[in-house]
Amino acid sequence: MTSQEITVALEVNGHTTTVTAMADTPLLLILRNDLQLNGPKYGCGLGECGACTVIIDGVAARSCVFPLAGAVDRQIVTLEGLGNRADPHPVQQAFIDEQAAQCGYCLNGMIMTAKALLDRIPHPSETQIRNELSANLCRCGTHIEILRAVLRAARQTP
Q1: Sign of torsion, CA 104 14 122 89?
Q2: Are 154 and 147 in contact (CB under 8 A)?
Q3: What's the angle, vertex CA 51, arms to CA 48 and CA 57, rounded to 5?
Q4: 97, 98, 100, 101 alpha-carbon torsion, rounded to 10°
Q5: How far apart are CA 56 and CA 8, in angstroms?
Q6: pLDDT tens readout for residues 84-113
Q7: How far, in Å, CA of 101 to CA of 140, rounded?
Q8: Which residue of 32, 102, 108, 114 shows the fewest CB atoms closer than 10 Å?
Q9: Please, which residues have CB within 8 angstroms of residue 49's CB and are 6 or more apart in sequence?
Q10: Which domains does the chain have, with CATH numbers?
Q11: What would the pLDDT profile of 72-81 be if each residue is shown by its tens digit?
């Protein structure tokens, strides 16, 4: 079975855009190459590391294994859709305040996963945070700072 080229309207970060690509093209490639959204990173390409995480309909999803065809009629949020330098999202600000980055490659996945968790459970326990982030890989060893950042963001949530 071969994939077909499709033209679809995607809702990304509150804006609708039309793209044409093969139906099985990973959403990550569309976001980075077609829409120039560089928050989601290409890590493993297998959905294992979390660097490519976006939020789709409120759920953290691995965009490297999410096909374009599956993104139709869904709300997609990337890191760029959360905040910016002048007005960062509270989760982004908590990561800054806790200095929860070293190389920064995992940050997109950590922040997006944390955002989806806090939307679902505004005041999670440390165990819930650890469980949620356990599938996001960080090789620099900033796990303690990342945990503190998510706890800080949860404390700032009304």
Answers
A1: positive
A2: no
A3: 90
A4: 50
A5: 16
A6: 999 999 999 999 999 998 887 889 999 999
A7: 8
A8: 102
A9: 43, 106, 109, 136, 137
A10: 5-81 (3.10.20.30), 90-155 (1.10.150.120)
A11: 999 999 999 9
Q: Which residue is associated with the tokens 């700032």?
A: 156
Which letter does DSSP use for residue 67 in this model? B
Structure tokens given for 74: 């869904």
CA angle in degrees (0–180, nearest 5) for 99-46-2 = 145
CA-nearest of 44, 17, 47 to 30 is 17
Token pair belonging to 29? 């490639």
Q: Which helix (H) or strand (E) holds 75?
A: strand 75-77
Contact status, residue 136 vs residue 106, Cβ threshold 8 Å: yes
